[in-house]
Amino acid sequence: MNRIKSLLGINYPIIQAGMIWCSGWELASAVSNSGGLGLIGSGSMYPDILRSHIKKCQAATSLPFGVNIPLIYPAVEEHINIILEEGVKVVFTSAGNPATWTTKLKDAGVTVVHVVANTKFAKKAEDSGVDAVVAEGFEAGGHNGREETTTMCLIPMVCEAVSIPVIAAGGIGNGKAMLAAMALGAEGVQIGSAFAVAEESSANVNFKEAVLQAKEGDTKLSLKTLIPVRLLKNEFFNKVEKAEMKGADRQALEELLGRGRSRKGMFEGDLLEGELEIGQVSAMLNGIRPAARILNDIWNDFLTEKKRLADLEL
Prior knowledge:
Elements: H1 3-8, E1 14-16, H2 25-33, E2 38-41, H3 47-60, E3 65-70, H4 76-85, E4 90-94, H5 102-107, E5 111-116, H6 119-127, E6 132-136, E7 142-143, H7 151-161, E8 166-169, H8 175-183, E9 188-191, H9 193-196, H10 205-212, E10 219-222, E11 229-232, H11 235-245, H12 250-257, H13 261-267, H14 291-311
C-alpha cells in the first residue's frame, strides 16, 4: 500500500509544488482533476486573494487539493485561519518551524506535510506531528537548503531518519526520475518546474519561454546569506552574484532584492531585472502543455521504466 496515496486521497503519488506566482487555483484544480494533488501557492497571495483562490478551486474540483504556506510569510496566521474557515483538508508548510502551527491544523482535521532539506529538520518535523515530509534536494527551484545536498543523497538519509512517509522533490521532471526517487525510499514525488510551465500556470509566458530555453548550468543557487534560492541567470542574478563576491552583508542583499522582485520576474515577465526561480530540471523541459498531459506523461513514463527494469536480466 502506498501511504502517500492513502494519506492524501489521490490516485497517483504525484504532488504539484505550491510555487509562488505559478500555482493558482487553475493549476491546482487541473492537477487534482488529473489524479494528483494540486497545491495553491499562498506565498505570493494577500489573504483575500488566497480565500478567492480556495473558493475557485473548490468550485473547479471535487477532488483533494491543498495549500502551501511558507511559514515566514508575514500574514501566516491570517492564511491559517482562512484555510480552516474554508475547510481545506491538506496543508504543505515550508520555510519555518512546523511546530508553530501543526497542532492547530491537525486539531482541525487537516493533513500536514512539511518541506525539509536535511535530516535534522525532517526529525523535528516528525516530532512536531506532521503526517509526512517533502525532502527537497539541491536541484530544486525556488527556496532551497544551505547544505546543497542532492536529491539522490538526501532521500535515503531522510527515509532512514523518520518513520513517516517521505515525498521526494528536486530534479524530478519525468517518470524515470520518479522511479529513481521511489527506489531510494520515497513514496511520492513533488514536482515544481515541470508544472511551472504548464498551460494553467499563472506564470508569465515570457518566464515560461525563458525556462524552456534554459540549458545545463543556466540556474544557480543564490542569496545563501538570506534564504537560498535557485535562480535562472539574468541581469538581476549577475548583480547578486557580483555583490556576494564582494562580500555583501545581509542588509545589502536585502536592499538589492527589494520588494516585488519575484513578481516582476515570474508574474510580470521582466526577464532582465526580475527574480526567476526555477530548478535544474528546466534544461529537460521542452514545451508548454496542459497539466493533465504533464502528469499523465510522468506516470506513463514511470510505468514504462518500471517494466523495463523488471524485464532486465540482471
